[in-house]
Amino acid sequence: MTPYEIKLLVHHYCTEDPYPQHSEILSDTLRIFIDNGLIEQVIPEDHYKITDRGMAHIDQLCNISWPTQVWVDERGRPVTRDQPIAKINQKA
What we know:
This protein is mainly alpha-helical. It contains four helices and two strands; from the N terminus they run H-H-E-E-H-H. A two-stranded antiparallel sheet has the order 1-2.
């Protein structure tokens, strides 16, 4: 998902009010969300509400773990600080 798509889905998670900015990409993205069962249109026509599937997707986004950094040697093997220096520099 793009940051815009995340922002739009979170908006509809929080409110049924129309998204404050109108554009062609808004209409396209809302259609994609509807087609994938993330939101549904309610009356009046410019109002949408999040579905159970949309709420589940927001839950997934909220529970993504932080990225981690891994140091690797020239062969792509992870290098950890608990390895002795001599072992790190050894050719295997």
